[in-house]
Amino acid sequence: MPGFLIDLDGTMYAGTRQIPHAASFIKALEERGWPYLYVTNNSSRTPEQVAAHIRDIVGIDADAEYVLSSAQAAASYIAERQDGSRVFAIGEAGLRQALTEVGLELVERDPDFVVQGIDREFTYAKLEAAVRHIAAGAGFIMTNPDHLLPGAHGLSPGAGSLGAAIRMATQIEPVVIGKPSPIIMRYAVERLGLPAGDIWAVGDNLRTDIGGGIAAGCRTALVQTGVATSANVDAQIAETGFRPELVCRDLAELLERLDG
Ligand SMILES: [Mg+2]
Fold first, then answer.
1. Are residues 170 and 91 in the same domain?
2. What are the positions of the active site (predicted)?
């Protein structure tokens, strides 16, 4: 039985627009009883908010239990460590909820870890605090490395661009949790409960979705509905060096090829 780790933006929806065949793909997985999980680098939304967005945009049933975000994976990663549970967080609701949900304490002083995700209220004061905490020995965790986010009105700086300021100031490299990091993929594979080799990593981004899938030992399927398009896919494969097992026009073609 195959399992699926499915990317959201560029794969299921594009911002507030449904991507064709996303709903019928999920319905087909449900009918066959094939397990799946939505895996997103977005740390700003809670899993409940992500599920609500899927329901609203794609028009299918979706539940928070079917979502794994980079914020949740970052929280699990810290909770597993023995180095302490005091966390200074730069991020939004999704990150804060994920951290407190696993029993970590959000603090402003003397943290054991600095965790940084997208924060649309990022300030010099937050940057300064993070830099001082890391210089004093706190671990540095970044939810996801995405440097740009596509939006309705153009590109916006992502979590990776904020993290770049912390890296520059501290000269310390963070532990990166989100795709293509194998850390989030390891939690995703665990949640599905299948061998990695039976799981398809599905997404529109060669560097994150396909790179992460390969790093985790999963099978990989690229859809050309987001970052990758039919016009740029060959150049992107050449540039990233990642060669997905399947290159599909969209989720409908992926389903056909799984059946073929
Ligand atoms: Mg995507």
1. yes
2. 7 (nucleophile), 9 (proton donor)
Say whether both 164 and 201 belong to one domain. Answer: no
Type of residue at 177 = I
Instruction: Tell me phi and psi for residue 143, to 5 degrees.
Output: -65, -40
234 is catalytic: no
Average pLDDT score, the chain: 97
Q: Is 121 exposed, middle or buried (0-12, 13-18, 19+ CB in 10 A)?
A: exposed
Statement to judge: residues 124 and 164 lie in one domain: yes
For 150-198, what is each residue's pLDDT tens digit?
777 888 999 999 999 999 999 999 999 999 999 999 999 999 999 999 9
pLDDT at 149: 87
Q: Which domain holds residue 149?
A: 82-176
DSSP class of residue 199 equals E
pLDDT digits (tens, 9 = 90+) for 213-241: 999 999 999 999 999 999 999 999 999 99
Residue 140 sits in the same domain as residue 93? yes
Question: What is the 259 CA–ligand 1 centroid distance (Å)?
Answer: 24
Is residue 204 a known part of a binding site?
yes
Q: In this structure, are 141 and 93 located in the same domain?
A: yes
**236: CATH:** 3.40.50.1000
Q: How many domains does the chain have?
A: 2
Predicted local confidence at residue 168, as pLDDT: 98
Are 8 and 29 in a shared domain? yes
7 as an active site residue: the answer is yes
Same domain for 237 and 155? Answer: no
How much distance in Å is there from the Cα of 40 to the middle of ligand 1?
Answer: 8
- 9 assigned ligand-binding residue: yes
Span 103-131, pLDDT tens digits = 999 999 999 999 999 999 999 999 999 99
Q: Around ion ligand 1, which residues have CB less than 5 A away? A: 7, 9-10, 204-205, 226
Exposed e or buried b per residue across 28-43, where buried means at least 16 C-beta atoms within 10 angstroms of its C-beta: bbeeeeebbbbbbbbb
pTM above threshold 0.90 = yes
Q: How many CA atoms lie within 13 A of 198 on its CB side?
A: 12
